[in-house]
Amino acid sequence: MKTPHFFITAILIAVFSSPYAQVNHWESLVYDSSDWHYVVPTATTDSLWMISTFDDSNWNVGPGGFGMGDGDDLTALPSGSSAVYQRIKFQIDNPAVIQKMMLAADFDDGFVAYLNGTEIARFGFSTGVVPTYNTYAEGQHEALLYQGLLPETFILSFNEVQSLLQVGENVLSIQTHNVSASSTDLSSRYFLLAGLNVADSLYAPTPNWFVAPFEFYESNLPIVVIDTYGVTIPDEPKVDAYMGIIHHDDGQMNNINDPFDEFDGLISIERRGSTSNGFPAKSYGLETRGPDSVNYNVSVFNWPIDNDWILYAPYTDKSLIRNVLTYQLGLDMGRWAPRTQMCELMLNGEYMGVYVFMERIKVNPGRVNIDPLLPTDTLNNELTGGYILKVDKTTGGGVVAWNSPFLADAPSTSVVPFQLHDPDITVLHPTQLNYIQNHITQWETNLAGTGFNHPDTGYVAYIDVPSFIDFYLMNEITRNVDGYRISSFLYKERYSEGGKIVAGPLWDFNIALGNANYCYGQYPDGWASHFNEYCPGGLNVPFWWNRLLEDSAYQQQVRCRWEYLRANDFSDEALMAKIDTLYNQLQLPAERHFVRWPILSTYVWPNFFIGDTYLEEIDYLKTWLMDRVTWMDQNMWGDSCQVDLTVAKRNILVPISVYPNPAQNTLNIKMSQHKAIESLWIINTMGQKILVPFTQQKDQAQINVSNLQPGIYVVCVMDQQKKTYQTPIIIER
């Protein structure tokens, strides 16, 4: 029987801050092959079957490893079994010496586990679902041990151990369910292990496959500690938990046993993300709450008060800093971007690695500072603003409010979906939805028309031009594969505040900055806004971004803004200093992170570069970014604004030579220092990448340019170290 919520809250407050003692070693309390009491239910079972006092004397008894098809079964179950319920009792003399426990679960397809009647873990069932004898798991899960793989593990924290274990007899109860009536591979194997804070051998050895969880106690970063008390964090809705943050402002090391001095209180938490939700390290959305479970505004890390926060897991970004770096650059631009704090996370007693504690995008004076739109705001000035929109996929739970009547930029023919981010579409008044849809459509119609660049009645009447330029430059300097088309935000001010459509805020740059191996995201050259030319189809870039660049006045503003940024916050020195600062903070935390997640030297979607060390990942990011800004310097729109860049340009140590130049039909390319050519391409004056036929031999290549129109082009050559070099050429006839 689940412990009542009010009682759980009392326990949380009472014991959450208990000290963490170091685990000396691990032992087994329950083996999979131990004798269990079990039943294959064919009717509703007593609702208290999982509590310690339940009488299971009339149940079957057999060794664990129950199943009917995976080759790992010590006790065979009848064909067609939808579920098996099992119980086992074990003795504990002194719960105080048990620092942590681990439930290791090898199963097919879903389960719910209980310790002394309280749920401690589940898989394959949504939170709140109480499976009955004929309930099927919500998805497939294959048993792993018989394949030579490790089982799923669920850590019970010190607080949970101390609140649930009792002196003397304890009972572990588990219900395992098949995925369908036609499935023939129901199986269940479970282990219960204890992490002891003493050297004495009290129980049984661990299985030969067992790997002790990583132990973590101290960091130069803030330590975030979250305890859900055995409740699995679902995709939605949020579940109650307790959070403490240890952060000493005076620069001292933070220890897991230190008081919670940054935050100490109740939260609600859920998993978040679309693609990222499928990675082992999950990202979370959370709300800080008061004792009455109502959202409670707080200030963390000296940020503006709010109650909506995100714990982002940089799992696919092995530099760990791409999002943090991008948001910092956005703030340097003078644009609001989520504030971030690198930290290390302990979740339910388990070390989860390096995370980013950050702000969520929402209307708020400390975030997107526009007037909020209330459900009653359906007239006059109040109707005209307070909207945050986004172009995004729907796999993360988003709902399309409307599709633009204008297709994505050529050559794509995909639709552009608009979503309402704040307020949510479920609370939006129909009048409000109709207004914002019509207004956005009016802007798109104007932009697509012949007079789009009129200085008074063209696009300038609808959009905040500087924000669009900054948004463009940030997506370009990062060459964001998702840029413009996924997680791309716009917001609309009230007429009293100017009434313009503003581009931003910035969001989701984890596969930018050379961290994508598809759609040319790995290359530091070419315009990200031309994504549709590389990958037409699917969710593509709206036509706005390249249409604006057809206006020479807009081009010139882009050029001047770029030169200003390169002379200041985007200088080579400033960019490298930002990366170095983050790297210096993360050296030791990153070492722990990659012990917890041993993915260095391993491909993780969609990595292009795979480094053997954390430093190699950082060096790749640095090299890629310097190559990127160099290319943008050389190919930026418009004419120079004569901004003093005040920075020394990097010398290209390995130049390429081309001949003849001008060329008519054939162009020869040679790299000095015998650098081998891996790939090459040509870029026209619009920044478009042109793939041309060529032959090559090590450091030399020959290109057929007979099909190119006369004009000026740039030849780009990449060597085997993924460095790119460029030189201009002229084609004439």
Report on the structure:
With 733 residues, this protein is α+β, with helices and mostly antiparallel strands. It has four domains: 5-196, Sandwich (Jelly Rolls), CATH 2.60.120; 218-359, no CATH class; 380-550, no CATH class; 656-731, Immunoglobulin-like (Sandwich), CATH 2.60.40.1220. Strands 14-15-17-18-19-21-20 form a seven-stranded mixed barrel. The N and C termini lie far apart (84 Å).
Secondary structure layout plus pairing:
Elements: H1 5-15, E1 25-30, E2 35-39, E3 60-63, E4 66-67, E5 75-76, E6 83-92, E7 98-108, E8 110-115, E9 118-123, E10 152-156, H2 158-164, E11 168-177, E12 187-196, E13 218-219, E14 223-227, E15 239-246, E16 254-255, E17 263-272, E18 283-289, E19 308-312, H3 322-332, E20 340-347, E21 350-359, H4 380-383, E22 387-391, E23 400-403, E24 417-422, H5 430-448, H6 465-477, E25 488-492, E26 501-503, H7 531-534, H8 544-548, H9 552-566, H10 572-596, H11 614-635, E27 656-659, E28 666-671, E29 677-683, E30 689-690, E31 694-697, E32 700-704, E33 711-719, E34 724-731
Parallel strand pairs: 4-5, 14-20
Antiparallel strand pairs: 1-12, 2-3, 2-6, 4-12, 6-11, 7-10, 7-12, 8-9, 8-11, 13-16, 14-15, 15-17, 17-18, 18-19, 19-21, 20-21, 22-24, 22-25, 23-24, 25-26, 27-28, 28-32, 29-30, 29-33, 31-32, 33-34
